[in-house]
What does this fold into?
Amino acid sequence: MSAVPADVLPGGAVTVGETVTSAAELGPRARLWPSLAAVYRAQLSRARVARIPLLFVATFQSVGIMILMRGVVDGGEEARTVVAGSAVLVVAFVALNLLAQYFGQLRASGGLDHYATLPVPPAAVVFGAAGAYASFTVPGTVVTAVFGCVLFGLPLAHLWILAAVIPLAGAALAGLGAALGLLAPRPELATLLGQLGMSAALLLGVLPPERMPEVVRLARNLLPSTYGVEAFARTFGPDPDWAFVLGDLAVCGLVGVVSLAVATRAYRRAAVR
It folds into this structure.
């Protein structure tokens, strides 16, 4: 074996004590909005295939509740609450209940490791999944609202408000569902919490508040979906107070920002463990 001096090797000489470092250039960091759009499309495509039967169940459940309540409620303020609560219940079933189960299972199965290896900001994963699940509720919510208006004889003129109610109430409920799924130590507990949240949206959102005890009314005010129900129900009146409608929608938006921020922080903690 012959030793070849370093100064005769191609590429020049290397002196003793000199270290050569060639730092590999990293690619540009993924931006939030393109990453969010990619996650949103992927999640929406997945939900479209796997969640259609569950969306049918959510819509059928809300329609069935309205039919049952038709024998108890004739019209007026109570009918508005029943229709608005049943419509928002579809959002709660998918955005809160199913998203809590999804993130709970994703955390338990190690699926978060897959997202952690991608150049995707944590906020894009949480926001994209939450947006996809909330968007998936649009057909069922619209069908429920139209059926309820026809069933109880309510006007259809202001159903356009659903274009604001669905994304804002969906953001609040989806953020809550994602946070429950990511913070729950076990997937079974995430499923239980999601079911309890949906049951609370059912009992406190659909039933007229005038017939509830004062303690239950206070608990109702703590539920994010309540403000979506109130905003939608106010539009059925002959002269809606749009200031109160906007106020209820603002509360939904604020809760959505806070809950999604909590879910993003929980995702960061769960992804590095």
Q: What stands out?
A: Confidence is low (pLDDT under 50) at residues 6-27.
